[in-house]
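sanity check this:
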Amino acid sequence: DNYLNRNWDEIGDNWATGNFKSFSCDGTHCVLVTWDNTEFTCLDRDDVVDCRGIKYAQSPSGDLRWRAPVIRNYGEEKVDATEWDNMCACHRCYSPQQEISQEDCLSVNIAVRKEALLNSEGVPIIYYYHGGGGNHGHNRYDAYELVTKENMMVISVGYRLGMFAFLYLPEIEDGQEYQSNFGIQDQIAAMKFSQKYAAIFGGNPAEAVISGSSSAGEAVWWLLTIPEAWPYFNKANIMCMGVNNANRPETASVSINLRSAFYDARTVDRIDLFANISYAAEFRTTMACRLKIGQ
């Protein structure tokens, strides 16, 4: 057994009647209707169903700026998933993202083989987090080749960047648990949202890999230390970033200890072992120090 959440109450009796109510494609678009009567219109790309720009949380702007993400719940409505969503707003990024980015950007793209969806195969999932130094980048990732060659569901995640993601607040506001790292909270919220819908689209939420490169590889290390993230994945793929990247004076000793813990745990098959590591908790408390805006 792994650590993933096996409680499917959110979907209710759908398992007895099929993962979706109806599904059809016409060569241009595919339309999937859930048992909640949510109608998703996605792109028909021959062997792949490509669903783009599905909002997993409300726009983190106005009263929701610098607050934990509020997950979207879809009911009897139509969702156009044929276009990429907005690139996330950034204060220190490259053109054209600098000019066209917006705060309303919390979305996932879901790509899966058409046969896997039709037959409810329950293929493994990979959550892809883009790099960009935590200040730029986007989730407009064309996963066609990975999906067709490896028979995986690819979910690419948009999350807040720069000052919108990592501004360190002077105190914890009412109803909030953390003073910073809203971008990391977005990544967890995206997995929580997707755990329901991935099954409907032919994925297996009990076999999920989190994957990131560069700054997102560093984020994957952090997700390994955050218990709130553990119910949503059972494997991790870290590219271009070692845990010793947390090398500021105030975090260096924690990084060394945590690196040793990961090495000692290399043959262990459960990620909740980190719950018993005292300096993993210490590392979580120092993340905000590492990510104060402008550093």
DSSP finds nine helices and ten strands in the chain. Confidence is low (pLDDT under 50) at residues 1-16, 278-295.
